[in-house]
């Protein structure tokens, strides 16, 4: 999945820095981990839409 970083951030588990307005290819495993850790708010889809995160009630 291609995502665009909308705010610079740092993922401590992978020691990876994400730069604002940069595009990244993220595989399904890393994407799920990012969502679980609340980092989805820093990214949009390649089309510029917010990433939809399931509510905790839906899990």
Explain how this protein is built.
Helices cover 15% and strands 27% of the residues. It has 59 residues and is of the alpha+beta class. It has one domain (2-47). The protein has a three-stranded antiparallel β-sheet with strand order 4-1-5, with no helix packed on it. Strands 2-3 form a two-stranded antiparallel sheet. A hairpin with a 4-residue loop joins strand 2 (9-11) and strand 3. The longest helix is centred in the middle third of the chain and has 9 residues, at 28-36. The chain is globular, with a radius of gyration of 11 Å. 7% of the residues are buried.
What's the structural domain tally? Answer: 1
Describe the sheet with the most strands.
3 strands, antiparallel
The quaternary organization reads as single chain
Distance between the termini: 22 Å
SSE string, helix = H, strand = E?
EEEEHE
Tally of helical segments: 1
Helix/strand-derived category reads alpha+beta
**How many strands?**
5
Radius of gyration: 11 Å
Helix content range: 10-25%
In round numbers, the mean pLDDT is 87
* Widest β-sheet, arrangement of strands: 4-1-5
Instruction: Give the overall shape, derived from the CA principal axes.
Output: globular
Low-confidence stretches: none
């Amino acid at each position: 999945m291609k995502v665009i970083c909308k705010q610079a951030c740092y993922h401590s588990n992978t020691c990876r820095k994400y730069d604002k307005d940069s595009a990244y290819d993220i595989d399904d495993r890393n994407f799920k981990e990012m969502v679980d850790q609340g980092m989805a708010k820093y990214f949009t889809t390649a089309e510029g839409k917010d990433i939809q995160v399931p509510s905790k009630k839906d899990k």
